[in-house]
Amino acid sequence: MYIPSSFREENPEKLYDFIEEYSFGVLFSQHQKEAEATHLPFMVDRDNNRLYAHFSRANKHWECITDNEPVLVVFHGPHTYISPDWYEQKDTVPTWNYAAVHVKAKPVIIHEKERLRSMVDQLTHHHEEMVDSEWDYEAAHPKRDRLLKAIVGIQLEILEMEGTFKFNQNRSQEDQKGVIEALSSSKREADQAVAEVMKNTFEDEV
Description:
The chain is of the alpha+beta class. The protein has five helices and eight strands. The mean pLDDT is 93.
């Protein structure tokens, strides 16, 4: 994707952190000149430089994916409109602040029951811990095993990761401060989320 140098992020650990935080991505592929896309929750395997996910078997997108034929996965974080009214000098144009990570990867479709079970177990444990749940996961095993027949797994060997984190790095500190103040005072959750990211980005400057 097009990324101006001011906004480019190349640190793999930061990109992995971003994917784990905003793990609901979109997998894009092409088959017979037709574009296909599916929204999926992804799991990161940093040690092996891989992503994992699973499709509903009823979703025919997985049938269009050829092993080792590269696909694209897009992850995006907080984003919002930025008004020139928040800058010191108003004679400029609006923009959009956002963060996104693109991953190019080689896919392998997974049908084996044991591998599917392991993938689902890891994904479920990860998210149950995040929500501090008391749900008895072990008690659900019999039904889970039956439902494994309804999904198809996908392993993605990462070929390339690139991130764009566009948060007014190309503006003055006063402009950055003005944007943060305006977004922080907004009632919109998206605005406040971007403000928090900007505060963390410029914590030693503004």
